[in-house]
Amino acid sequence: EALAEEAVDIFASIMTADPLAIALTGNDLSMIPDLARALIRALLLTPGVSQMWTARDETGVLAGYTMFALPGQLMLSTDEQMKNARFMEFLERLSPEAQSYFNNTMGKEFPKVNNEAFGIESSERTTYWCNFAMVRAEHQGKGIAKALFKLAFEQADKLGAPVALSTTNIRNVPIYEKIGFRHLEERVMQSPWIEWHLWFFIKDAATSGSADGEYMAAILSKNSKVRSAYSVSLICEVEPNMTSSTIPGRLIQSQQVLVFSKLLIEMNRCMLRSLRLSVKYPRSPYLWEVSTRLSKCKVPKHH
């Protein structure tokens, strides 16, 4: 619950001028936090549906996050998700025109254009679909999004699934291309209140098998803008009201971190654990710290 509210706060702070957020709330900007809350809770509070990667600054404040629906899953597609999202309460607060637009857009038009752009049937279900990629304004331009996506790319490679997303912000286009996505096309969408655009991106699953830990190089970049340490976390199948313990360690390879974390989960029968590591970049005067924390997970049998 607390993490969901942190995520909502970031969404609401940077999406007030987003055309899709405006369209989905019927141009009622006061409803944007409620929109965020419904969508985020559906994924975050329903076990087995999503994975969330988070970054916290040195004070512990959530600086950014990405959230992915696992292959085979879809946001707001089950009764359990709808209940966790309190979706009907949100929908009832929209105007009748906004209710109709939301249902038609999210239920029909958005899936249709996604499938056409990606050339994949049920594209949101058959990919490691990124529903959210948010970084607080004051933390943007510091490599956080790149670090979060590098971690997610490694996870997607292990799942054997491509990573896909669409964005409504043209400023994100060069960012996603630089991160490693392939830009497919752009679509123009209409609403009674505002015209909005969609840009579609995909990153194919690696064919080499396992990830090579390149994200560590990105996190240890000598980018002069990055001066504070960020705690980067993987949260799987989150359940509310959970606590974590910390296991200190000094591991260098990202692959080792993930493998070791999965072993902890199996050994402790899905009990929450966190793995913390510190890495000092040899040419930098700064101490860089990356933490990988895994919340209560159900590890797939093939792992």
Structure write-up:
Helices cover 38% and strands 23% of the residues. The chain has eleven helices and ten strands. It has helices spanning 2-14, 19-24, 32-44, 79-85, 87-92, 96-118, 123-126, 144-159, 172-179, 214-219, 254-267; strands at residues 50-56, 62-69, 128-135, 163-167, 182-189, 196-203, 231-236, 246-249, 273-280, 287-294. The strands form two sheets. It has a seven-stranded mixed β-sheet, sandwiched between helices. Strand 3 (128-135), helix 8 and strand 4 form a beta-alpha-beta unit. Helix 1 packs across helix 3 (32-44) and helix 3 crosses helix 4 (79-85). It is globular. The two termini are 29 Å apart.
Total number of strands: 10
What structural class should be given to the helix and strand makeup?
A: alpha+beta
Order of helices and strands: HHHEEHHHHEHEHEEHEEHEE
Please estimate the helix content. 25-40%
- Give the neighbour order of strands across the main sheet: 5-6-4-3-2-1-7
Number of helices: 11
Taken from the alpha-carbon principal axes, the silhouette is: globular
Poorly predicted ranges (pLDDT <50, ≥5 residues)? 208-229, 236-303
What is the CA-based Rg, rounded?
Answer: 19 Å
Mean pLDDT: 76
The profile of the biggest β sheet is:
7 strands, mixed
- Distance between termini? 29 Å
Strand content: 15-25%
